Amino acid sequence: MASYRGSVKDFVNFNAKQDAELLHKAMKGIGTYEDTILMLLTSRSNNQRQEIKVEYKKAHGKDLVSALKSELGGLFETLIVALMMPPISYDASQLHKALKGVGTDDDVLIEILASRTCAQIKDVVEVYKKECGGKLEKDITGDTSGNFQKLLIMLLQRSNDEGVDDNRIEKDAKELIAAGKGKVGTDEDKFINILGNRSHEHLRLVFDAYKKVSGNDIEDSIEGATTGNLENLMLAVVKCAKSVPAYFAESLYRSMRRAGTDDHTLMRIMVSRGETDMLDIRACFKKMYGASLYTTIQEDTTGDYGKALLYLCGGND
Hints:
GO molecular function: calcium ion binding; calcium-dependent phospholipid binding; phosphatidylserine binding
Oligomer: single chain
GO cellular component, one term: nucleus
Keywords: Annexin, Calcium, Calcium/phospholipid-binding, Repeat
Protein name: Annexin
Family: Belongs to the annexin family.
Strand content: under 5%
């Protein structure tokens, strides 16, 4: 088994009943003990948090998440509520919000559909139907258009993560080069078909061949050839094919290092990668930006919200 690369692990001497009581006490009485809540919930794995929810309801006859919501506020509340959702439900709810809110939040669609494994996306589609009361594909089709929509739907339907077709590597690379040649009329369809239908493993080899033959990075060609959402989505697919942790390191950096922190992106990534590849993201972040993710979060956030994010980050590099 590959070593675990998350920063959030199962708590060793876990007792769901005891934790439920600690949370109850932290919320009862005058003033809420936010520290207890944030330290406890960030040091339990998602599965353990689900067990705590069950025990809390048994003991107190009410929903733990509702209780937390009534005690907390602001970004801290949003973060804690996110931590209490099973990962696939969280993805589904983020997509639903992105599609059903005012205007479409394309960045969320791009991030989730470009970075998740085929198995995860399949699960998200099922949970979306069950919990959000709609069909994800139908909602995406209703809210997006053109080639952006086409590539999103392909990613939604992609059936394999693995596998390389050796006979196609060179051919795919040459097709991409030819498709990107005419700067004015880029053959976007060619790009979409290859990016939307090949495994990450296969794409990495195609990009290497592309560079060897054309002398350019595929990213440069995409940036020169297309714009807007489609460009962002294609670049996300390319970056995730090369390295998912590096893709998230860059997204985190961009969410913080600008005027005004993009807290929703920051939070979404810290919550959804905590039990996946946070250690790799931290390593990429340090390598790419010469600073640790931990200190960057520290400089960019405040209060209980900031503290909870630092716990999720899991350490300073």
